[in-house]
């Protein structure tokens, strides 16, 4: 067994803590060597809680730390692209939470820097590592599903968000970007050429005038004629809901049955099964698998299973969807490319 | 199309009314021509409600009525055997609700009378006509399930019964007799040779001393070594529950998923599906199919799909199970045969 | 019990035969008195098979037949509107298969004729009578689902169609019109204001140039901001698939679980459940319930549960969807109203 | 965070390797410090594969190793009791795979030694830690299920066993002992007083004469009248199947839905879901949770969640069941106590 990969975590919030815990508890091939977060004391606190020695308030210290082979970027989305560039320039491999960038220009800069440095870049589209989705892809690759005709992917959060803290286009750039990537993943070899999106503030209608979009439907056309539908809503009374469906010429695969487990209680109200309540519960193993795949790519020098190019393609769809809402018409992907 | 079979209904209670409605509404090959019930006015009332002309307080009138080709016996269980004999002696075909008899001697008398008269006798083991069970039998007959090893059949009623009106051995003679027939149906070619039963008053413990048995488990051995488990309880908080399972060398069939329909409501409590609440709801189509098969047998002169011999075999198992509880030991079927 | 309603069936094809069988076998309140079909001998053959006396090659004979109280129109779609008008002018109640008309002008003529004659008109949107959908509406009306935000309805046929016999816009006017009505049914009080549709020949790509559309996705906006998605495909390898979903502020209802029954076979390949294979299998009870409701409306003089206005509203959505495909942009419903 | 618990693994077979991997990869609170196995080279090989330094062919070396705080016993069943005694006498905490002993006398010796030494003893009834079963117990403890009346627990292995290597009573002492413990776990406060068992060689009928029992049904009576059914079969064509059910006065809980994941494939054969194929797949998280609970008990000095007394009670049921098969009659638990 070669030495474990030294990982620094950038960002100590909800996802940062979770990724840190995954590295410490569930990834024997990696070792958490540092945590960085500009919030006073935050990095030290998480490092101590996880039993990983160093906490840095200044991310620049990460690049100077010789124990750091790779970074996991889980800071706010607007900082992602610059951190990928910085990591690459410092010769560090980088796992970056989605979205990798908020503009195509930034995405290109990140991709170029990574290519120039020859480091591994993997983007956090965790659904590709979830067992149901992986199994659907196996059915596709084996030809069992035939040629995809109608695809669907949806994401529903359990609600409780603060409308004042939702920037415009969040539903496209941070939520549906998962579904856009999933639809691409489930129709390998085809590319999305046009989208049409409708979106509104239905959970928080009072915030509609300030541009909040909390519910959206996006129809995508692939270059072979196949159609995809991506849906998202920021509130589901029953918890966290992620599902997918592929109707192909050979049959249909459905992913994500929403059940928390196999227990059913039958009582006066009927039969009740628990529903999933959060992403870290539903995707715990997927989060472990994606970081495991990243660590493996770093160790083997192999390519990452989700690339910067994948991140860029999903971003282009998200930008086109946002533009479609503004323009009230279908938008071709090549319209958002200048 | 030949003329419809003229049917007289004997018994106008819960099952009688339901069978009457089935004949009138859902069986084009039959015509309800009379209803008989000794309770004053009962026969007339049901006849009027169903739009069938005659109501008889005296069942003897049925045998004199030339419009009557066949009778459906849905009177109290203790009257069944004598009515089968009377019907046969009057040259009428007879569909008899289970149990056909309460003793093996009565069962033999009924079978002999029917054989002597050359009429059709069918017994009301409706589960044989329910789609799930029929489909399991198809899998068995096709060899897909292989040789049965472990079988299960269970019946749970929704409760609300009056303990004072439950005669001893009801759970064996009227409830589990369905499960005993089902287990025989699901292991064609084999016969039950021994049973061991445990039973108690768990729903109404206060009635235990008066001999109430409201919950029971019966283990059956088949002559090829296969094992069956029959279970019953007079109260399930979630409704009416009938299920079956066959584990064979080729796989497993499970019957009866307990769902009322395909609707699911996902809300704060999780995902809820309605459960089945009553036998006439669950088995409506099975009740129609069994009467339809009876009418068909009458019209074609063919054999009935559930015979008096089937009824006798299930009765022997029920009697042995009741004896097993009394004796506190396994009882061989040949012990109840004298 | 009042006298049964005398019903004449117009059209003796697949749906006509099925409706005829329903009237004869499953609707005690109605009597089939005539069948009309211009194809030589067709009406007589079906009338004989169903045991209903008269067969007419000339539909005009129906209007002269005093035994006819009501007609069930199951002839080709293009003849529907004129037959509704003729029935109304002859003073007959009319149940008309969908679509009631192919243009809004024809729909208006039918509605006007019915109103002038004071007869009952009901349109064949059978999904409103299917248990799952009815139960979802109960949850809506009770407030359990809260305010609908995202709705979905889909229809997939088992395939095997003849591309040469599919007129343009069939997928909208004959298939998706069910889904459009369903979405309106599941969001009572709101109306659709805009649609955007994409459609293609994916099952039969070779027919794309002749205008075949066999796969479609339609996004609908309601006047309160809610979003609906309707999907259809003319071929599903696994059979006939009709589903629905409502995500409301109070939770989610899902309708149509695709299972043929409760039997599951677990074998070397995993666990297998049969899927539904055809509409008459899935919706047998719904077809009975809708004709039963029609007969009840005729007998009671009450209003029909699905009106000509409902048919017109669904038609407007279908026409707008077809136009959206042609124009490549969202189309407002008021654009198809001149 | 206190120092991790130093764990030595005794036994390097299938379960030993799995437990070792769990300690190394999924239990941050424990450290694997040694592996012991008398087979030449086996301990060293597993220790090297897991990255844990020392491998001992002589288990006595474990007791001399000061880095060992606790042992995980995963050696052949016949060695368990003596190893528990040895561990206790050496002052080491001990996690012992089931069965803890093959006789009640051995069980008592193990319990006494542990008590005298004041060490923690936990027995490997992993089902208590599986999410579905844990959730059922929560429903029981909360009163939602009411008083248990009918309980069921079953175990089916995927087959492929070597009949020549199955000692008599294996099905009771090694397989059904899980179900006996589960039934006790699901009816807290009650004790089993009598069992009746039937068993046979149905998978391998040719081995019947040599005493092979590969299929069994056991009915258990609790002291409050409740009834339990335990079933086992050494071969299920569809994989590994563990299920449970509790029917209580308040409703029913069902555990173990047999699905490998949430993916369904609908194709020409119907809808197919993958079934679970092995225990380590089904219970991976349960195995981790039970070892985690053991480590926690060691660190906190708290009691183990599954005690030697639990192991003894399940053993008594297993011995009574084996005796019931031999005697062909129900056997009271107090009959196996001398």
Automatic annotation (TrEMBL), chains A, B, C, D:
Residues 133-253 form the GFO/IDH/MocA-like oxidoreductase domain. Pfam families: GFO_IDH_MocA (PF01408), GFO_IDH_MocA_C3 (PF22725). Residues 6-125 form the Gfo/Idh/MocA-like oxidoreductase N-terminal domain. Gene3D superfamilies: Dihydrodipicolinate Reductase, domain 2 (3.30.360.10), NAD(P)-binding Rossmann-like Domain (3.40.50.720). One of its GO terms (molecular function) is nucleotide binding. It comes from the Bacteria. Keywords: Oxidoreductase. Belongs to the Gfo/Idh/MocA family. This is Myo-inositol 2-dehydrogenase / D-chiro-inositol 1-dehydrogenase.
